[in-house]
Amino acid sequence: MAQPRMQWKPNALYDIRRSAPVVAAVDGLAARAAAAAGDGFEWSSMQGARRPQGRWRAIVYAKTHSARRRNAKENTLVRVLGSVR
């Protein structure tokens, strides 16, 4: 019995990683994490370099001095990670 042949399109996985549903899911998680962390925390997202993946990624960070201090004392961002799933 012959094995079926699969032919990959070179940009297929790259296009999936930057598709609207994937971007919306990543951005949604980051926005929920920033909201759960409280005032002074923001988020941003971008597509990584294409070596070879080019994954969409997001970060949540402390924007204000008081948020940085609160994160250093209470590990705010680490505690929020479990609540946004």
Q: What's the helical proportion of residues?
A: 40-55%
Can you count the helices? 4
Radius of gyration: 18 Å
Assembly type? single chain
Shape: elongated
Q: Major sheet: size, sense and barrel closure?
A: 2 strands, antiparallel
- Give me the secondary-structure category: alpha+beta
Mean pLDDT: 91
Task: Kindly estimate the percentage of residues that lie in beta strands according to DSSP.
Answer: 15-25%
End-to-end separation: 45 Å
Enumerate the spans where pLDDT stays under 50 for 5 or more consecutive residues.
Answer: none
Count of extended strands: 2
Sequence of secondary-structure elements: HHEEHH
Strand order of the largest sheet: 1-2
List keywords for this structure.
alpha+beta; 2 strands; two-stranded antiparallel sheet; 85 residues
Descriptive report:
The chain has 85 residues and is an alpha+beta fold. The protein has helices at residues 12-17, 20-37, 65-74, 76-81, and strands spanning 41-47, 56-62. Strand 1 and strand 2 (56-62) form a beta hairpin. The chain is elongated, with a radius of gyration of 18 Å.
What is this structure, in a nutshell?
Helices cover 47% and strands 16% of the residues. It is built from 4 helices and 2 strands, in the order H-H-E-E-H-H. The protein has a two-stranded antiparallel ribbon with strand order 1-2.
Topology:
Layout: H1 12-17, H2 20-37, E1 41-47, E2 56-62, H3 65-74, H4 76-81
Antiparallel strand pairs: 1-2
